[in-house]
Design a protein that fits this description.
This protein is of the alpha+beta class. Helices cover 29% and strands 30% of the residues.
Length: 101
Amino acid sequence: MKLMVPFTPHIANECLMNLKCPNIDKWPDVNIKILENIKINMVVQVNGKTRDVLNLEKDMSEINVNNIIKKSEKAFKHLSNKKILKTIFIKNKIINYIIEN
């Protein structure tokens, strides 16, 4: 509710008083340990078509992502025995393989 104060100050303050919040004006502290171990969903595409979505650790390198994709049956079956012309890698978002038809 404290995070809602800038957007809906009157309702948020009323709710905080009903919840018997001791200090309405103090913002919550950020727990950095939670932010360090974030997992992201990496989209794996082949020629622009989504073939798999992998749940990976944040800020993985392209090499590590490629190694995980090689172990993934769903994504790797579209890449096996194909010539990869280009790889487009956007960190924490997407990896797109352009293959020869």
